[in-house]
Amino acid sequence: MKIALAQINCHIGNFEGNVAQMQEAIRDAKSKNADIICFPELAVCGYPPRDFLEFDNFIKKSKEAVEELAKAAVGIAVVVGAPRRNPVIEGKDLYNAAFFLFDGAVQHIYDKTLLPTYDIFDEYRYFEPGSNFDVVHYKGYKIALTICEDIWNIGNENPLYTICPMDEMMVYQPDFMLNISASPFAYDHAEQRKKIVATNAERYNMPVFYCNHVGAQTELIFDGGSVVMSPGGKLYEELPYFEKGIWYYDLEEVKAGRAYRAAIVPKIERIHEALIVGIRDYFRKSGLKTAILGLSGGIDSAVVAVLVQRALGKENVRVLLMPSQFSTDHSIDDARQLSENLNIQYDIIEIEPIYQRYEKTLEPYFSGLPFNIAEENIQARARGMLLMAFSNKFGNILLNTSNKSEMAVGYGTLYGDLAGGLSVIADLYKTEVYDLAKYINKDGEVIPTNIITKPPSAELRHNQKDSDSLPDYDILDEILYLYINEQLGPKEIISKGFDGQLVNRILKMVNRNEFKRYQTAPVLRVSNKAFGMGRRMPIVGKYLG
Amino acid sequence: MKIALAQINCHIGNFEGNVAQMQEAIRDAKSKNADIICFPELAVCGYPPRDFLEFDNFIKKSKEAVEELAKAAVGIAVVVGAPRRNPVIEGKDLYNAAFFLFDGAVQHIYDKTLLPTYDIFDEYRYFEPGSNFDVVHYKGYKIALTICEDIWNIGNENPLYTICPMDEMMVYQPDFMLNISASPFAYDHAEQRKKIVATNAERYNMPVFYCNHVGAQTELIFDGGSVVMSPGGKLYEELPYFEKGIWYYDLEEVKAGRAYRAAIVPKIERIHEALIVGIRDYFRKSGLKTAILGLSGGIDSAVVAVLVQRALGKENVRVLLMPSQFSTDHSIDDARQLSENLNIQYDIIEIEPIYQRYEKTLEPYFSGLPFNIAEENIQARARGMLLMAFSNKFGNILLNTSNKSEMAVGYGTLYGDLAGGLSVIADLYKTEVYDLAKYINKDGEVIPTNIITKPPSAELRHNQKDSDSLPDYDILDEILYLYINEQLGPKEIISKGFDGQLVNRILKMVNRNEFKRYQTAPVLRVSNKAFGMGRRMPIVGKYLG
């Protein structure tokens, strides 16, 4: 029994493209005499299709796509994920299904039982949980088909569900398990994922073939990293990360197991790869080509510039350097040096004349009032406007360069530096941005060293430093991580040794700036808890605020 | 048996305020010798608390609030909604519970069984469905306690759930039902709600007391409109809409029934009330006081100005009139006249000098290229910047004045006219904005007639009219309604008699502008499907795109 895992890059709603990609993979698998080829969860429509699932027409197109694939399933079995109508009138209208196609027809359907509805997942919004646990009979083998979350309710201290689909299937004594998944990247997730697959292979003592998506869908980056596990829970192979392709396995060899060691890749290297894929797929899948961003001379825009240049190519990135009267000389020098290192087009546009024009216009209303956030924000917004003017004139998409620490505490200007179509590093705390900058420079200076070593500043007034109004990033980031990623409350955070007043001040800042984050671009997700679809907080709320 | 329904205005996470409000209501009810007082669903923490529910500290505070209320439940029973920990380790960690408090203690807990997870609702994200259907024994009566959605799985053609909690409770033969709810306003929802309560009172042949929230939480506006239904499904009383208070009922009188006719209120009047409540509570609950907006002389900003003046008072609204070289004289005259009618502060600021300053700055890059959307957007963004400068200097919150039609097709400028902290009329199609303007003028001219009668224009280039690039709003709005509110696909819409090319063009515009809506303010929800939390679409997707 030869099994193919096709780690493919689907595109939401692109039925034609997704089917064509799978048809090609099936041809390849047939040419290599595979018996089964597996595609990921909801591969025909892409994951997550979100409210498109509520359109009857979208479900019809999914059905047609499955029928199209069934035609190709001759001489080979095809396992593929797609939504399907719930034939029973009670309950949600859809199932999240795995189709087993063979001999030109649907031979078996398994409906996902455990529907993740937390963080970025909304599956119970659309799907009824499955309750049929038959196995597939194929060429003398019994196959347990499962979908993603179905295998995660195992060995947890605090299980989310009251049922475990594989326990139900075990009465039929399946020979091996196929799991089709849509498991997005977070820098600590691959290890958990491998552990869960191993736990299943161990508990049920059978080979497990786990097939994941690769590629990004707006904020979610699927990292691939599909795995093949031998009985007993020994890793047989880990597929490449962030790479699409088809890999072939002989069932008996997987059963026998082998010595295999997975590569150990540092967190920051994975993040670097993930962000590049995130940028690239956002552009490609949106039919866009070129990007623009503002280079301030600071570390955030520097890191984003490098990532974009690597994702789209130097000819597709353009940057603006927009000094004001508050900019220091080194900012321009550093930004220019970076542009030259990256070999990207840069222009220098002074914003002071625009700023002064606003001042003059506002003089009748503002005269006598002290310089404050209004004047600071005018500078940030003038830059945002210039970038958007270039974007509108030349079609370059503006990328946002905010980091997670400043997004958290509201240290950014709406419609100014918070502008942009995609937020590249807003799931990285400032300290992680430094780590990424150092990683980028590991083989030589790409980002000018001075950008990494100088104290961070927004340069919106004279001699401004981030540290004027924020604690050291080392401390700030730890508190933010505990609140945002670990979801600890103020008392629990303080009990870890942080100053009580500081913790309360920071948590309030986070809550009070929900209104800003509501209006910012989608954030490429690299951690277990990113701003955006996975973190849903009230705007008008008083808790901690 | 005297039953009090307390239709209160809670505030998310404001435990102290919510408890104080309920304690006061309990005192009132005791002074009137009520036997039971009911508060709405999740009243102690406000609805919807969203991801605050994932914070242990938030759940602890909810528990303490219930304990505080229990102390007041002496000589009277108190029914109140609050989250509670699921004592079983398997399943979600929380229940959405109704507490029956009496004699200073919790006497009974009912856990919500049907957890709405669609549109704006995310309850299965947090809660485990209940499965215990005991009734409450109190003063010789048996009471069926239910929570909101629990009573909605009845008489539907396509039921969402496979269980009906009241069917389960009927084995105990309850004497009457109390339902505590958090059912937000949509202009057609109150009728459905009354029908569902009536269907329950008829099917189970008992009095039903239905207690809803009133007041807004960011985008969701709770309209109150609690109802008391006599056995057989005859309306006994409909409580006021958009008004908080306590109403008292004698059980025997409700059992006996009476002739009662609910007031019939036109859709547009309800919308008018709802939006005023939405604005007022957004400001009050955020601790804000004053608003600012731009008056273009068009109908959208005119309607918003009226609503804000009515919500916050004339002294708390300030408007800017910001003509450009493309503005027509009547725009300024109309806007000035409106400001005078409303007796609000207005200032006129020419944006041409700023626009020209941008042109000059951009000249080296744009010279020789035709005037296009870049120049149009500079005007819109210059206005947005001036409004934000006032907002930042004086603390007035900028209100967004976009309507649903333009939000749908992307006819608006990001960081320009799409700016603002709250979107007031973005759940009203343009034709509905006209209806609202006419309603506002029903007793005399508030909005200058010319604003209502002239053809709509963005005035971003010479002689521009909306009709240059969009079909008539009558047709556009119908197509948008069918796609957005009814979720019909292109074929179904075309089959209703619309031009195929036009339908496809419009649906594509809606999908392709998802990225803009992602970055706009929360929208006050008045229909069954508003942009925002209730409509979750992919940005990078190809379906219809």
Q: How large is the radius of gyration of chain A?
A: 26 Å
Q: Structurally, how many domains make up the residues of chain A?
A: 2
Secondary-structure-derived class of chain A:
alpha/beta
Which ranges of chain A are low-confidence, i.e. pLDDT below 50, for 5 or more consecutive residues?
none
Relative helix content of chain A: 25-40%
- What's the end-to-end separation of chain A, in Å? 60 Å
Largest interface, counted by CB within 8 Å of the partner chain's CB: A-B, 95 and 96 residues
CATH class of the largest domain in chain A: Alpha Beta
Sum this structure up briefly:
2 copies of one chain form a homodimer. The first copy, chain A, is α/β, with parallel strands linked by helices and 545 residues long. Chain A contains 17 helices and 19 strands.
Describe the structure.
Two copies of one chain form a homodimer. Chain A has 545 residues and is of the alpha/beta class. Chain A has two domains: 2-264, Carbon-nitrogen hydrolase (Nitrilase/N-carbamoyl-D-aminoacid amidohydrolase, 4-Layer Sandwich), CATH 3.60.110; 270-466 and 513-518, 3-Layer(aba) Sandwich (Rossmann fold), CATH 3.40.50. Helices cover 37% and strands 17% of the residues of chain A. Chain A is built from 17 helices and 19 strands. Chain A has helices at 15-31, 56-72, 165-169, 189-203, 251-256, 267-286, 299-312, 329-342, 352-366, 373-394, 404-409, 430-440, 449-453, 473-485, 490-494, 500-512, 514-518, and strands spanning 2-7, 36-38, 77-85, 94-102, 105-111, 136-138, 141-147, 176-180, 208-211, 214-217, 220-223, 227-230, 234-238, 245-250, 291-294, 317-321, 345-348, 397-400, 422-423. In chain A, the strands form four sheets. Chain A has a six-stranded mixed sheet. In chain A, strand 15 (291-294), helix 7 (299-312) and strand 16 form a beta-alpha-beta unit. The longest helix of chain A is centred in the last third of the chain and has 22 residues, at 373-394. The N and C termini of chain A lie far apart (60 Å).
